[in-house]
Design brief:
single chain, globular
Length: 388
């Protein structure tokens, strides 16, 4: 009954309206597109099946702490234009991502750097670390890697692989490392400096007050309908606007004609704790099978919180089905072949623009999605200008 009422309400709300663009999804791609089109006078409607804007970057304030609802998000980029773009919307803090890993009760710094090598081998100079890695990879130098395990061993050797890669990766993907394709680990960043900054990017931080503030700014001049499923009333929505920007699963849009794409999903287990500081760091990875979760996030540390309480989230990877959120595309040969069929259809569409991680079946960092949306909107606006 609620669904029927919602559909009727939506139809009444939009009955007398005609939009230039219908945007399906209120994540970064959809919100940036709406913002740029709105600035040029185009009338947009954004519809979002969830009860909030922001997609997987949505942050929810709980007990004074901005909780990253769908896992940790740290903004980082080398693109000054993108950095200035997001900073015009909200102010960012100076948060630097420096995760640590726990394996069988011992702590290790990430990414792999001189601190890590000292913790594993007791080496103190870059030469000692280089020699140790060379010693461990020597026996794999002639191996032509056929799976992830062989690839990783050839890159970093036994100790780093077994302590920090093997079981963590198996938990992430739900498969043995020997069953995973080698291309998943094309390279492993190794630093011979005492540098715990996970990203090499020039610009890095977290928006003060949470990511939702960015989306509120991007969408403040655009009509938005939440709890509105495009596919529940597809024919109506398709007729509502001249053009559609679609950010949902591409295989679903084409009714799974070429087959279903596969993903990995996540489950989040939240705890509110009546203590000031649980783990002393925003992100701690757990790299052994001893724990079934891959990491614990302590949200207050993203914004240097001083609250007397804290909130933590345990992150559990899991197999995906249609009732779960698709997080990570499984870009193996089978799925990529299916996607290419959908991409041909998408490229041939004159009315629908496909963008974002689900519509492009591609893992994107936040700055990459923003850059992709800005590039696409620039092309659209230039084309519209040429028509005048």
């Amino acid at each position: 009954l609620f669904r029927i009422i919602n559909i009727i309400f939506t139809q009444i709300f939009c009955m007398l309206k005609k939009y230039d663009y219908l945007i399906v999804g209120a994540g970064f791609y959809g919100a940036v597109s709406a913002y740029e089109l709105n600035k040029k006078g185009y009338k947009c409607l954004v519809i979002e099946k969830r009860n909030h804007i922001g997609g997987n970057c949505y942050t929810e304030t709980v007990d004074g702490i901005n909780v990253h609802k769908y896992g940790a998000h740290i903004f980082h980029t080398n693109d000054r234009e993108i950095w200035e773009y997001v900073n015009q919307l909200v102010e960012f803090n100076r948060y630097t991502n420096s995760p640590v890993a726990i394996n069988n009760g011992k702590l290790y710094n990430l990414p792999f750097n001189m601190n890590t090598f000292y913790q594993i081998w007791g080496v103190r100079t870059p030469k000692e670390a280089v020699d140790k890695i060379a010693e461990q990879t020597e026996k794999y130098k002639d191996v032509n890697p056929q799976n992830l395990e062989e690839q990783a061993l050839k890159l970093v050797g036994d100790d780093i692989y077994n302590i920090l890669i093997k079981e963590y990766t198996e938990k992430q993907w739900g498969m043995k490392a020997t069953e995973l394709p080698a291309f998943i680990i094309k390279r492993l960043p190794i630093r011979f400096t005492f540098d715990n900054n996970y990203f090499n990017d020039t610009y890095q931080g977290v928006p003060i007050g949470g990511y939702t503030k960015i989306f509120e700014k991007l969408l403040e001049e655009t009509e938005v309908l939440l709890k509105t499923d495009f596919f529940a009333n597809r024919e109506y929505f398709e007729a509502l606007a001249d053009k559609i920007i679609y950010t949902g699963p591409i295989d679903k849009f084409f009714n799974y004609e070429a087959g279903k794409l596969n993903y990995r999903s996540l489950r989040f287990e939240n705890e509110s704790l009546d203590i000031e500081n649980f783990q002393g760091n925003a992100v701690v990875n757990y790299t052994s099978h001893e724990e079934t979760f891959t990491r614990i996030i302590e949200h207050k540390h993203f914004e240097f919180g001083t609250q007397k309480n804290t909130i933590i989230t345990k992150e559990y990877p899991q197999d995906w089905n249609e009732n779960l959120e698709p997080y990570y595309p499984v870009n193996d040969s089978v799925n990529n072949k299916i996607y290419r069929e959908y991409k041909k259809k998408a490229d041939a569409s004159e009315k629908v623009i496909f963008g974002g991680r689900l519509a492009e079946y591609k893992y994107y960092d936040m700055h990459q999605i923003i850059g992709s949306a800005l590039s696409k909107m620039k092309k659209i606006l230039n084309n519209e200008k040429e028509k005048l």
